[in-house]
Specification:
The complex is a heterodimer. In chain A, 24% of the residues lie in helices and 23% in strands. By secondary structure, chain A is of the alpha+beta class. A three-stranded antiparallel β-sheet of chain A has the order 5-6-7. Chain A has a two-stranded antiparallel ribbon with strand order 1-2. The longest helix of chain A is centred in the first third of the chain and has 18 residues. The radius of gyration of chain A is 20 Å and the shape is extended. Chain A starts with a helix and ends in a 36-residue tail after the last helix. In chain B, the strands form three sheets. A two-stranded parallel ribbon of chain B has the order 1-6. Chain B is α+β, with helices and mostly antiparallel strands. In chain B, a hairpin with a 5-residue loop joins β4 and β5. The chains are: A alpha+beta, B alpha+beta. Chains A and B meet through α1, α2 and α3 of A and β2, α2, α3, β5 and α8 of B.
């Protein structure tokens, strides 16, 4: 075990110090390669009888016409997984997205007047007294 | 002197102190703000407890390496057990601090004992009573973690993620959906299998969801969801996304996971793979690679193999 007192006897000051030092890492982690409108590529590789196999799969997921931009990955056994629901893998991408709708009901709760769905995450309840800015919807 | 980590269902004092400590950490603000951490919305202070929520999500979003999509800094790879041991120990130390009790040991939930019950009785286990974790619901309405909008100090979920796994601010009650996404908890046969002779190898190539060995079985990808993963799925609600530490039962689950690992270490030896000689593609998971922390100095898997000087479990019968 470490002899560092910040490790063994944390204090509010030590916590604040380390969080300040790691702020950039938190921000960087939120920029994990996202699928965006172009989709997310997942690469599977395997060696077989001296041959190298590479399978590149791109998923472009939409719900109510709006992209779901988190990174959807595929394991070598064909299971699809998604970091927003990290303890599960699915036989199909459709089943995965159904789970997202169940787990994040606030994100898929409404449709805009123009028939397009709201961006995931933009329907969440605000903090008391806080007005949530809404993204301008594309036409 | 080493503390004892008890079974939460057998120790009323541990139940009470755990709830008290969690609520104290939920209302402790050491300086970090949402703005400084890049979380959208107006700047609000982040509690010490919520820093653990962010730490877990941050690790989930740190792919190791970035060229693949399974292994991350805390999951789906060898580092799963030591990283969570590190996180639990930091929580335990902070609970001891706010409780002013150096003898406090983080309790565990022996979920395989509940797994022996019928699915209906699992939902009515004593852990879901008002004097323990409280009930299932959206929001939870009994127990020590009930949200009261009129009470600024009452428990609430302040940081979660959206469907794109991006951190966001919220202000709501805790959500659970016991048994709604999976019919039942892991059973004794499962925990016994985790210590069977076929599990003597800690982990192996390809070091991910497909690996043979103890780690992948314990984490719950082998024939999944099983073990740890199944507990997350069975509890449901806030235990499903990457911000699952929002539910204080997260730490009771992981304390039991750690207990099972400790039983494995004592049976098969305090070993860990991959070693330092493993290729760079396993960086973040090798014996002496850094386990990063949001709130403390880093540590290494090698430093997490024997913490018996700090804590022991009241029982290693899993």
């Amino acid at each position: 075990m470490s002899n560092d007192p910040d490790f063994n006897r944390p204090t509010p000051a030590s916590i604040s110090k380390y969080v300040k030092g790691n702020q950039a890492k938190v921000k960087a982690s939120q920029k994990m390669k996202m699928g965006g409108h172009g989709g997310a590529e997942s690469v599977r590789e395997a060696d077989y009888k001296g041959h190298q196999i590479v399978v590149r799969t791109t998923y472009r997921v939409e719900v109510d016409g709006v992209p779901v931009t988190g990174h959807l990955g595929v394991s070598n056994n064909g299971q699809v997984h998604y970091h927003a629901v990290p303890n599960l893998s699915f036989d199909s991408a459709i089943d995965l997205v159904k789970m997202l709708i169940d787990v994040f009901p606030d994100d898929f709760s409404g449709k805009a007047a123009n028939g397009h769905g709201s961006m995931p995450g933009m329907n969440m309840p605000g903090m008391p007294g806080m007005k949530m800015a809404r993204k301008k919807k594309n036409g | 002197m080493a503390v004892i980590r008890p079974n939460i269902l057998n120790n009323a004092t541990a139940r009470q102190k755990y709830a008290q400590g969690v609520n104290l950490l939920k209302n402790e603000f050491t300086g970090p703000t949402t703005q400084a951490l890049g979380i959208p919305g107006p700047s609000n202070k982040v509690s010490t407890y919520d820093l653990f929520v962010i730490w877990h999500q941050m690790a989930m979003m740190t792919l190791t390496p970035s060229t693949q999509t399974e292994r991350n800094a805390a999951h789906s790879g060898p580092v799963f057990a030591p990283w969570h041991r590190f996180m639990l120990r930091q929580l335990e130390l902070n609970l001891q601090r706010v409780l002013n009790d150096a003898t406090f040991g983080l309790p565990y939930w022996d979920w395989a004992a509940d797994g022996q019950l019928t699915p209906a009785k699992q939902k009515k286990s004593k852990i879901w009573a008002a004097d323990c974790m409280g009930n299932s619901g959206s929001p939870v309405s009994t127990g020590p973690f009930v949200f009261k909008a009129s009470d600024a100090k009452s428990f609430r979920v302040r940081i979660d993620v959206n469907a794109n796994n991006q951190l966001r601010q919220v202000n709501r009650g805790l959500r659970r959906g016991l048994g709604s996404q999976a019919p039942g908890l892991p059973k004794r046969a499962d925990t016994a299998a985790s210590l069977g002779t076929g599990m003597s190898t800690y982990d192996a190539s390809p070091w991910n969801h497909s690996s043979p060995g103890f780690r992948n079985f314990l984490e719950g990808w082998a024939q999944g969801p099983g073990m740890h993963n199944l507990v997350h799925v069975w509890v449901g609600g806030d235990m499903l996304p990457a911000t699952s530490p929002n539910d204080p039962v997260f730490f009771l689950n992981h304390c039991n996971v750690d207990r099972i690992w400790e039983a494995w270490l004592q049976k098969f030896g305090r070993s860990y793979v991959p070693t330092d000689s493993a290729p760079a593609i396993l960086q973040g998971h090798r014996l002496n690679d850094d386990l990063s922390s949001l709130i403390s100095p880093p540590t290494k898997p090698s430093a997490m193999l024997n913490l018996t000087a700090d804590y022991n479990y009241d029982s290693l019968t899993v």
